[in-house]
Fold each of these.
Amino acid sequence: TVIRDESGKIIATLSSGEDITERKKNEAQFRKLSSAVNQSADSVVITDRKGVIEYVNPAFERMTGYSREEVIGKTPAILNSGRHDAAFYKTLWDTILRGEVFRGEFINRKKNGDLYSQGETITPIKDETGKVTHFVSSGRDITERVAAQNALKESEQRLAGIISFLPDATFAIDRAGTVIAWNRAMEVLSGVKAADMIGRGNYEYALP
């Protein structure tokens, strides 16, 4: 600012400024976090307290087939497959509205109708008073892992069925040494019931 006397002669200048170092630092931090979320391989969804979607990252779009424009303003119910009952969602909402983190596995439906399994973590965001204002959900597609687990379980059940008919005392363990089958003849020989051994390490019991 220039200050002049009655004749118009400049007699002083005033300058003022604002230290924007902290603001620049915050802006840089925000850009870094925003870039990390956008480039994350995990799906990220931010909703308000009522569950209305305010943001989704590109990984969400790739995983679900929905574009950002299609889901902003809607709720995650758009992915509902009908495979979870009301009690499941009640537990979810009760947990996050208390300000606690919810972790679980969902069976969701993509835009094209395909089902997929998703491991998901929902974290409440609180304001300075401790009130929950938003939720951040992050997750990844675990369809292949769940399919492999189910296939292994079915295989173990078939093996247990076969072993149950064998006349000799027989039991089976998995790679970790956990008992997955213990037939009737083994019960007679050992005096230990199958119910007491299934799921336990075989090292917990040894024949005399």
Amino acid sequence: NPAMNTPNLSIIIINWRSQEFVRDCLTSICANIGSLTHEILIVDNDSFDGCEEMVRSEFPHVIFIQSEQNLGFAAANNLAFKHSSGRNILFLNPDTEIQGAAIQELVYALECLPDAGMVGARLLNSDGSLQTTCITAIPAILNQTLNTHYLRRNFPRWKIWGMRPLFEDTATPVPVEAISGACMLARREVIHRVGGFCTDYFMYAEDMDLCVTITQAGWKIYYVPDATIIHHAGGSSVSRKESNFSNIMLRRSVTHFFRLHRGLLYVMLYRVSLTGVSALRIIILLVFFPHITRQRS
């Protein structure tokens, strides 16, 4: 019976210059997966960083797929999905570490909620503090232009952030608009129906796009507070110089998200809003911190 041989779970990890993170991630999975039938697939996005040798030596049960080009996050996940066979699919960042029964909690929630298409975990930073981006609102002009550390920290319950469930005392899964791409568990049938990740994105916003398409297909997205995973955010970056590149790619991806889901007029309004916010920041610097601008000149 083929169904008897089908694993409950396929765990998909995309590597790009993250060998040490991959090792720690795989170690945490093996230590905490318990009796859950599963398979693990890793796609290396043309980094050739020694990850293949490490995996074959230390984790011979893992399926390793070497890509001769950097496919980007979306296309690499879709490639791994085609090679997977699990009833449920866990898209997991390499810079994550499973805590306790987190995977079992996610699978249990997904299979017990008939309207759940995808679920996400409670993500923690490396120091154990809460990572507030583990759930979020779907991108919009308002939350993108007001998205500052100060506002998110001081007004975390604002509806525009979509992260209010993080600060409510609940142990049961909660419907949310979107979850982080660092940890996304979905039914295989759902990923198959929506066609996987949209490959129009190279990096960033593809997780938001997937949340939207799953919701539009009639499913719900849930946050599972009992499932805890450490996410060493930014672990796949090799230097600080990449932060500027990341910011540029993020803006481009959000712009493309708006073009696909909101139309060209919305894109124009978004660009105008960014220009306005930038001008406002310059005015604030000139008025309230004139000594800084004089020093730079």
